[in-house]
Design goal:
Shape of chain B: globular
Number of helices of chain B: 6
Largest sheet of chain B: 4 strands, parallel
Strand content of chain A: 5-15%
Structural class of chain A: alpha/beta
Oligomer: heterodimer
Bound molecules: iron/sulfur cluster
Number of strands of chain B: 4
Helix content of chain B: 40-55%
Largest sheet of chain A: 4 strands, parallel
Order of helices and strands of chain A: EHEHHHEHEHHEEHHH
Chain lengths: ~230, ~140
């Protein structure tokens, strides 16, 4: 996708109580992953309250489609209340004429009927995406990436030098930010905590732990000085 | 009115984060508890109801104990329940469960692999074990 073209935001209610919430989540993911991966982005709805200002700006930066499980329209109402107006609102129970109630909430129990329901809803979402893109094809959105949920794209990696070789660690800046917020001082004693946290996301062999620790201490100190 | 916690169900509230496998693990751990292991003791609630400010949901969350299951350190479920005035008796982080599964391949935000289901079982079992005696 060329610079300046819009990315459509899709926000799913993912309602936990009813099967239609599961369908809203899966259909949204299908569009993001398979059907319109280059034209769409997402954000977790609860981040509007739990997150920061950039995250709340999501619907002002992206023309946004909400996908709700039922007529309570939590994603639509939540987005309009905390972020901005929505361009289209899709309701799973309406598309499926109430038949989604027989589907499964857990992926463990999914049947062909559930998959068909997801497929039908994702087709509707994709149509709404295409319609928004065609309406906005001449417009650009400045800084369209601002406020985009980190969930919608791979975590940016940071390169550190481990024993003389460059190693990319996905999400390292987020890990550093999180640890800094929690008061981890950038001194020579921070290595154990850094290593313990990075190991959750990045495989490190036991024999390499010491060289990683040294590299992480040095990267964390440099990061905190910036 | 005093609520008798022993007789009341506990709400399990996952973040269901849409972009990472951690969100799906949180969601499936919730269903493992509320649909299979202990449906008489726990029930799920739509987190989005709190975000939209649904009055019925806000009233309910203030009356019941709640266990939150969050995928990542942003703790969306816990923060939203707190903001709604709910009582969190336990806050679980999926990333913490990963510490015991270094190098695991849990699957994706759409589909769990075997390692992902193993982590789901561990989290769900941990929630159920806490029901009696009560939650710390
Ligand atoms: S729209 Fe319906 S399914 Fe979705 S979160 Fe709200 S109540 Fe639950």
């Amino acid at each position: 996708m060329a610079d300046g073209e819009i990315k459509v935001g899709i926000i799913s209610c993912s309602g936990e109580e009813i099967p239609e919430g599961t369908i809203s989540r899966l259909a949204t993911r299908r569009v993001l992953e398979l059907m319109r991966p280059d034209n769409t982005v997402t954000i977790c709805l609860p981040l509007f309250l739990a997150g920061n200002e950039a995250e709340r700006e999501f619907a002002t930066k992206h023309p946004t489609i909400t996908v709700d499980g039922c007529s309570k329209l939590c994603a639509k109402k939540g987005t309009e209340k905390h972020s901005g107006p929505v361009s289209a609102a899709i309701v799973v129970s309406e598309i499926l004429n109430g038949e989604g109630a027989c589907c499964a909430r857990s992926a463990k129990c999914q049947t062909e009927t559930d998959k068909e329901a997801v497929w039908l809803v994702s087709e509707e979402i994709a149509k709404a995406v295409d319609s928004i893109i065609s309406e906005n094809c001449c417009c650009s959105v400045e800084n369209a990436d601002t406020g985009e949920c980190a969930c919608s794209k791979p975590l940016p990696g940071m390169v550190i030098e481990v024993d003389g070789r460059p190693v990319t660690i996905a999400g390292l800046s987020l890990i550093f930010d999180h640890l800094a917020e929690n008061g981890l001082a950038a001194d020579d004693l921070c290595g154990d905590k850094l290593l313990e946290t990075v190991k959750i996301y990045h495989q490190i062999e036991p024999e390499e732990e010491n060289v990683y620790k040294t590299a992480l201490i040095s990267a964390y100190k440099k990061y905190r000085r910036q | 009115m005093t609520i008798d916690v022993k007789k009341q169900k506990i709400i399990v509230m996952p973040c269901s984060g849409i972009g990472k496998v951690h969100g799906l693990i949180a969601r499936e751990a919730t269903y493992a508890v509320t649909d299979e292991l202990a449906p008489d003791s726990f029930e799920p609630m739509c987190l989005a109801l709190l975000v939209s400010g649904d009055e019925e949901a806000l009233a309910k969350i203030k009356k019941m104990d709640c266990i939150t299951v969050d995928g990542c350190p942003k703790l969306c479920a816990a923060k939203n329940v707190e903001m709604a005035g709910g009582k969190i008796v336990r806050s679980i982080r999926v990333v913490d469960a990963f510490k015991n599964y270094r190098g695991a391949e849990p699957g994706t935000a759409t589909k769990l692999a075997d390692d992902g289901w193993t982590i789901v079982s561990e989290i769900a079992g941990g929630i159920c074990n806490k029901r009696e005696g009560e939650v710390s």
